[in-house]
Structures are given as structure tokens and as C-alpha cells.
Amino acid sequence: MAKKKKILYPVLFMIGLTALYTFILASINQGSLEIIKQQEALAEQKSILYVFGIDAPDSNDATTDLYTSKIETVETKTQSYYIYKTSDGIKGYAFPFSGKGLWGSISGHIALSTDFKTVLGLNFTSHSETPGLGGRIDEDWFKDQFRNLDVSASPYVVFRPSDSGNVDAITGATLTSKSVSTILNDFMADIDTFAQKEGLYD
Amino acid sequence: MTEIIRVFKAGIYKDNPVFRQILGICSSLAVTNLLTNSLVMGVGLMFVTAFSSFTVSLLRSYTPKHIRMMVQTLIISAYVIMLDLFLKAYMPDMSKALGPYVGLIITNCIIMGRAEAFAQKNKPFISFFDGLIMGLGYTLVLLFIAFFRELLGFGTLFGVTVLGSGWVNWTLMIMPPGAFFMLGIVIWATYKLFPHEDDAGKAGAKA
Questions:
Q1: Could you give the number of structural domains in chain B?
Q2: Which residues in chain B touch residue A141, judged by CB atoms under 8 angstroms apart?
Q3: In this complex, do A128 and B82 lie within 8 Å of one another by their Cβ atoms?
Q4: How confident is the model at residue A4 (pLDDT cuts 50, 70, 90)?
Q5: What phi and psi values does residue B58 have, to the nearest 5 degrees?
């Protein structure tokens, strides 16, 4: 093949092909950007509704409508949070949290009552814990333990069978369970300070 | 037609990418703890292998031989990014479950292997079919492994509980070692089941 020894042809060929594929990918990316953003927003809305204990409807549009009618987002410099408002006033606050798990970071949302003494609900939005072991933090039985959990005194989350234990850890996932309690205890201490500063207490 | 049958047989068992060529092992170990994950991963790989083989074959007479690897990598990664975007937009839960493995399809040796071994020397249509069937061969092995891992490890199939509450989950099966055991068993069983022509001769001589 005569072309083999030429330098110009391979370079031009590669540039041409790269340009073509970049163009195709850029168009697809542009086309799907909106849908991906919507999906991400929807997943977040579902998670926040879940931590407040509000049942999300099946349809996506209805979920968004419900979310906008009940939840108000507040952004501050250090921390963004969500307020659940009903006709009888504020029901609670939800905060996004994130921390170090066993394999990677664990993030999610936690909702607290207006006096910051009770957890309304907890949800994990992303984690990379071992499936079947630490990954079980995603399961309902684990998250449901945090519904209406009394957190008036520090340390807030303590695993049974410790004397002051209030939550069951996951068998076979000691390190993940520990990470979760550390993340939550640290985070709730921070939130306490934050809430005092912002004047969120009743 | 005979060509199609030959390619089909090769992809499914004679030259199966996983248990015969021992390619794509990393992902077969990683995503096989759930059937759904394996299925989506397999279908994703079929898509990428088929289209990249097709494109490589289409461009084969224009591609300078010494930069062909670069071209193949470019083509493969483009299709993987398309798949990743598609999953993110239309199957967000699946995209989350598969995590980094979708991006890692790029490094799946099966795709590059087929581009080098088949698409480089054959016409576009049959290359497309070869990619599709090789991907199917991979998917079938993945599903087979995942079937046992999910059934024994979670007591479920495609997320539906089948073994009841009395079943004690074999945690080992969902951990990485479970995948090694299963894959080892699969390779051993298929080696006995579909003896290679060369190996059959050797075995006969020994006996």
C-alpha cells in the first residue's frame, strides 16, 4: 500500500474522523442534556419528598407539581436546604449531606423537625457500598428506622445493642454502618450550629 | 448464509468470548451480582460491539494500517459515550446501578478483539452481525452466572423474590469471590461440554 508511508494522509484521516465523531457526540449530548437534567432533578425531588414522608405519585409531572407546591428551596453560602410548608406552617427542614463511606462517598438527604429534635426521614441518593452488605443501607427497613427518631442529645445515632442504642446496624457491614453513624452524627452537629446561626429554631 | 451460521456458532459456543477466548472477564466478574445489571450490560456491549465492528469494517480500506488501533479506540469510545448518555437520559436507575462500568465498556477486550480479528478483514454487514453475536455470547454467559449469583445471594430473580423468607442468603455469592467461583465453574463445565478440536485430539492421544 502506497499510502502506508505517507505522514500527511494518516494525520488528516485521524483529524477528519475525530472531527466527525466529536460533531456527532456533541449533537447527541446537546440533545439529551435537557432530559438528563430533568431526570436528575426528578430523582432529587423524589428523595426530598421521601425524607419528609410524603408519598410521591407515579407520574413524573405530578411529582414535580406536588414538590413545587410543598417544598421551598433556600440557598445560603454554606448550605442549601429545603423547607416543607403546609397551611399550618412549617413542618420540617431537609438537608443534603455527604460523607466518607467504606468504598466511596455516601450522600443523601435528611429531614428534621422544626425543633431539630426528631429525624423525619433519611434517604441515600448515591453510595458505592458493597452490594448485599453495606449496599443494604438503601433498603427500606434500614431507612425506616430513622423515621421519627429522637435525636435531642448527642451522640444522635447509636447502634444497638449499646445501652443508648436507637438504631440497628447492618450485619456483615460494620464499617458501612459505622460510616453512616459518623456521617450523621457529624452532620447533625453541624446542622445544629447552622440552624442556630440562621435562626431556624422556633 | 453459511457464513452467518458459522459466525453464529462461533459467537455462542465454539469461540465464545468469555469462556473460550477468556475476554471481558473484568465486567463479567463485576456486574453479575444481579440479572438486570447483567442484561443491560450485555445489551450495551452488543450495541457497542456491533456498531464499532460495522464502522471499523466500513473504514477498513481507507484506514492506514499503522494508525488502525487509534481509529478503533476512537470509534469504540464514541459508541460507548452514546450508550452512556442514553442510559443517563432514559434509564437513570440503571445508569446509577452500573456506575462506572458503562464507561469501562471501552476497555472491554471483546470489542477491540473483534475489531482486530474480524472487522478488519470482513465486509461491514457480516462484521456487524459478528459483533452482535459475540455480544450475545457474552450476554448469555453473564446471565448464566448472574442467575446463580442472584438466586443464591439474594434469593431473587430479576428482583422478584423466589426463594421465600426461609432462605438464608449466601453472602459469598454477591461478593467478588462468588464471581470467581462461578466463572471458574462455567469455564470448566464448558471446556468439558464443547471440547476444542485441537484439545480433543490431545485428549484422545493421552487416553
A1: 1
A2: none
A3: no
A4: low
A5: -60, -40
